[in-house]
Every structure is written in structure tokens, then in C-alpha cells.
Amino acid sequence: MAQVTVRTTDGGEAGSLELSDHVYARVPHRAALYAAVQQQMANARQGTHATKNRKLVSGGGKKPWRQKGTGRARQGSTRAPQWRGGGTVHGPVPRSYRQGLPREVRRLAMRSALSDKLAEGRLMILDSLTFEAPRTKGFIALLQTLGITGSVLFVTDDLDRNAFLSGRNLQSVDMLPAMGVDVLSVLKHDWLVLTRGAAAYLETTLA
Question: How large is the C-alpha radius of gyration of the chain?
């Protein structure tokens, strides 16, 4: 069991927390991480791209000129792709990029991401994350107190509205509830801050 110091929002300590080695201290599985990130990025694509082929563009109902005797190449329609304003050949069509991934691979990827952050010393446990009123300056002061520089992801068991409103204007700060955390969000931030309840929730879910 890995022992991690639990911090408070005023910079103090609130004891320690034992983190399961099965979830937070395993060797990262690079293939699972790659598959999970690839799946998440693919599923985020809308797939609404489209072009017009020759049956969708306007015009071209009449043959431009007669077949023979003009000295020009044979043409059947101004909607042909070689004409200006003609249809596109083999262009993209709306499609779904959605990918599936086995549940155990998704869990393995999340365990690997959490373990990677802990091994790098960039995983922090907070006793709780609450604000009496929305105040961005207060959130900036919290980051300075905790010694966090760069981007940070806060994961809480119960997302406090005032805390969310205090941090949403900061470009380097993101907040998610524990039930909605994902591998890509964990990996792309420099720091990961979990509340005590969020750490316990993830440990139970990923056990």
C-alpha cells in the first residue's frame, strides 16, 4: 500500500491515506493507454464531414454541346468533376468513428494513468474541495498554496458548485466528478488532484 499525505486547502496536513497498489502503483500498460486514448479521441469526432457529388450539385441538366463536330472534348454534363462547380469524386461522407473497447482494457488504462501520475510525484490528495463563495482569486491562491504549476485536473467525489465556478475561468484548471473521469484528461494534465472521497471511489471502481 502506498502512503500519501492528505493535504488541506489551507496548506496543512490531514493525516495520510493508503492507496491500493492494484490501482495506484502498478507498471503502466502502454498498449492499454494507447488504445484507450485512441478510442476516446475517435469517439469525440462528430463525423459530419461531407462533400457534394455530381448528383447533388446544381446545374448540368443539359449536354453542354453536341457530341461531334465542335473540335472540343466530349462532355455530357457540367456537373462532372472536371468542371468548375462540378461534383467531388470520392469525397468524405458522414460516418461514425465510434470505437469499442473491452471494459477490462479501459480499467487497465485508467489504473495505468493513475499509477503513472503517482510514480511521477504529480498525484495529490485533498481532504475536500469546497468554497464558501465563487472566487477565482481564491482558487489561484489555492494553487499557489499547494505548489501546483502547469495544468491540473481536480477530481472530486461531490463536485462543489462554488469550487467549480471559482476554477472554470482558469485555462490550466479542469474539474471532473470521480464518476466522469477519463484516461485522456488524466494524461494531458501535469497534475492530478483527488479528493479523499474521489480516491476511494476510484479504488472501489477499478479494484
Answer: 27
Q: CA-to-CA distance for 160 and 166, rounded, in angstroms? A: 10
Q: How far is CA 161 from CA 93, 195, 201, in A?
A: 41, 15, 20
pTM for this structure?
0.83
Contact 124, 154 (CB under 8 A): no
Q: Per-residue pLDDT tens for 173-200?
A: 999 999 999 999 999 999 999 999 999 9
Record the cell numbers describing residue 187, joined without a space.
Answer: 494524461
Q: Is a pLDDT exceeding 90 seen at residue 1? A: no
Residue 172 is predicted with a pLDDT of 94
Query: Among candidates 201, 154, 200, 146, which has minimal Cα distance to 173?
Result: 154
**Interatomic CA distance for residues 162 and 135, integer angstroms:** 8
Structural domains in the chain, sorted by start: 2-41+102-205 (3.40.1370.10)
b/e string for 186-196 if b means 16 or more Cβ within 10 A?
bbebebbbbbb
